[in-house]
Amino acid sequence: MPECKELKQKLLKISREITKDCPFCTLVSEDIENRTPIYCSRFSGERSPIPVDLDTCLSCGEFKRHG
Ligand code: SF4
Asked: Which domain holds residue 21?
C-alpha cells in the first residue's frame, strides 16, 4: 500500500529529526520496515546501542535537552 510506505518513510524522517541532537543516538536505520530503527546508547554504552522506537524517544525526552 503506497500510503503505508509513505507513512513509514515519514516516521523515519521524524525519528531522524528528533534524535539528531541527542548524544546517545548512534544511528537511525534506513529500513522502513524496522520497528525499532533508533540505536540508543544511553543505558547500554556506545559499543552496544539498543534499538528503540520513536515512542521510546518521546517518552525519554533526552533529545529536548540538547536541541
Ligand atoms: S531513547 Fe532517549 S537517549 Fe535514547 S536516543 Fe532516544 S531520546 Fe536519545
From this structure: 2-66
Q: Which of 56, 51, 44 is CA-nearest to residue 18?
A: 56
Return the best residue to mutate from 36, 41, 63, 64 for the ligand 1 pocket (most ligand atoms within 8 A of CB).
63
Which tens digit of pLDDT belongs to each residue from 35-64?
A: 999 999 999 998 999 999 999 999 999 999
> Which ligand 1 atom is nearest residue 25's CA?
5
Cα torsion 15, 22, 50, 41 to 10°: value is 170
Mutation choice for ligand 1 from 15, 62, 65, CB with most ligand atoms inside 8 A: 62
Q: Which residue type occupies 20?
A: K
User: How many folded domains does the chain comprise?
Assistant: 1
- Residue carrying C-alpha cell 554504552: 45
